[in-house]
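Fold it.
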Amino acid sequence: MKRENYITWDEYFMGVAVLAAMRSKDPNTQVGACIVDGENRILSTGYNGFPCGCSDDEFPWEREGSFGETKYPFVVHAELNAILNARGKNLSGAKIYVALFPCNECAKAIIQAGLKEVVYLSDKYAHTDGTQASKRMLAAAGVKCTRLTPQTEFLTVDFRVEK
């Protein structure tokens, strides 16, 4: 008899995205992304952080101040990082799992990469101009947007393999 209470594919891939977010060094917002093909194979992951070679000890993490003294001109969002981390793999028709609904800049990259579905947990910035622009572009490009309602509130990763 097979085990019961196993997680769904959507929960698994969203769990990978949330786990990737734990790599982010951003003190305020941690977002992860996981790109998956039609056969449930992970193609790439990413999280929000600075580009390779840009030290997170030398660039700012601040949210307020003059533009060049904040994180905003420097941080690569999780979705774009996942697309870039795919290193040229064919992403056409793939899904991207992300905890936070994509901004308008990431929506452009999602569309250009050929992704066909965005699965997300939170839409806390739904009221902002950027998110409204994102939704408009994604809809126009035929990208399906699905809010995930997990069957479980949390997952626990246990590194103790020998119990």
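The first helix runs from residue 9 to 21.
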